[in-house]
Design a protein that fits this description.
Layout: H1 5-10, E1 26-30, E2 35-43, E3 48-53, E4 55-58, E5 70-73, E6 81-85, E7 91-96, E8 103-113
Antiparallel strand pairs: 1-2, 1-8, 2-3, 3-6, 4-5, 6-7, 7-8
C-alpha cells in the first residue's frame, strides 16, 4: 500500500456508470496523500466525461491542520481533462488520437465521481 490509508479506501467508492453521472457533479482525484476537487462539465460521446479542476478556497482558520474546510467554485470554461471508465470499473484519464478519433488511456488514475473534496497533506 502507498500513501494515505483514507485515500486508498475512498478511491474505490463512487465508481458510477456513465448514465448515472450528472453535469455539475463533484469528482475527487486521489493522489499519494492529497486530494483534488473537480466538477463534471460535459458528457461527451462514447462514455467520456470532461472535468475541470475546481477553485477551492479554504474557509477555516486551522492553519497546517488535518481538519480542512473549503468552498468550491466550478471552472466551466477551462479545457479540463477527459475521463473514460476502464474495464476494471475505474475512471481513467484519456486523450483523443487525432488520426483515428479513438481514446487512449494516458495513465492509471484514481478518480471518484459523486463527491468533491480537496485536501493538502502538510507533512510532505
Amino acid at each position: 500500500m502507498y500513501g494515505s490509508f483514507i485515500n486508498r479506501i475512498s478511491e474505490n467508492y463512487g465508481q458510477k456508470d456513465y448514465a448515472d453521472v450528472q453535469i455539475g457533479e463533484g469528482v475527487t482525484e486521489y493522489l499519494y496523500s492529497d486530494r483534488r476537487a473537480y466538477s463534471v462539465v460535459e458528457k461527451m460521446d462514447k462514455g467520456v466525461l470532461r472535468i475541470t479542476e475546481d477553485t477551492a478556497t479554504r474557509i477555516d482558520d486551522k492553519g497546517m491542520s488535518d481538519c480542512q474546510y473549503y468552498e468550491y467554485k466550478t471552472n466551466w470554461e477551462e479545457e479540463g481533462i477527459l475521463l473514460k471508465k476502464g474495464r476494471d470499473g475505474s475512471w481513467n484519464m484519456v486523450v483523443i488520437n487525432q488520426e483515428t478519433g479513438r481514446f487512449k488511456k494516458i495513465k492509471h488514475s484514481n478518480f471518484s465521481i459523486g463527491s468533491r473534496e480537496k485536501y493538502h497533506d502538510f507533512s510532505f
